């Protein structure tokens, strides 16, 4: 099975996670820094990851409002998913990511990770939680 990439797309960072070859587990991979909506800044890096890891599809976190509606951040994620499909020709899935960043922060706090270290890993950890939610739904 080819692998799946998970993305937590923010306005300044994109947390990236990857599945194992069986599609069972998600692991944080890296964080890309960018200035939204400058897709040119991330196109090459994402294309390289997709090719290098033989990515079959990309799960993009969709931050919905608590009442289920789509706000500006959700619209930005939808735009990013469209960019991936149109420019990089990869299947994308939008996945409800409500509270994943807060959940990642809680896990890191409980593990007593310092604020500086939390800031470095929170995005890829949130991406891993988004991707794991998707993978769990498939099994």
Automatic annotation (TrEMBL):
Q: Indicate the principal place this protein occupies in or around the cell.
A: cytoplasm
Q: What keywords does the record list, in alphabetical order?
A: Cytoplasm, Hydrolase, Nuclease, Ribosome biogenesis
List the subcellular locations. Cytoplasm
Which InterPro entries does this chain map to? RNaseH-like_sf (IPR012337), YqgF (IPR005227), YqgF/RNaseH-like_dom (IPR006641), YqgF/RNaseH-like_dom_sf (IPR037027)
Entry superkingdom: Bacteria
Record's SMART domains?
A: YqgFc
Every YqgF/RNase H-like domain range: 2-104
Q: Does the keyword Nucleotide-binding apply?
A: no
Which BP terms from GO are recorded?
Answer: rRNA 5'-end processing
Q: What EC number(s) does this enzyme carry?
A: 3.1.-.-
An example of a Pfam family matching this protein is RuvX
Q: Which GO terms describe its cellular component?
A: cytosol
Q: Among its keywords, does the record have Nuclease?
A: yes
Uppermost EC category: hydrolase
Q: Name one GO molecular function term.
A: nuclease activity
What does the function comment of this entry state?
Could be a nuclease involved in processing of the 5'-end of pre-16S rRNA.
Q: Which family does it belong to?
A: Belongs to the YqgF HJR family.
> Which named protein is this?
Putative pre-16S rRNA nuclease
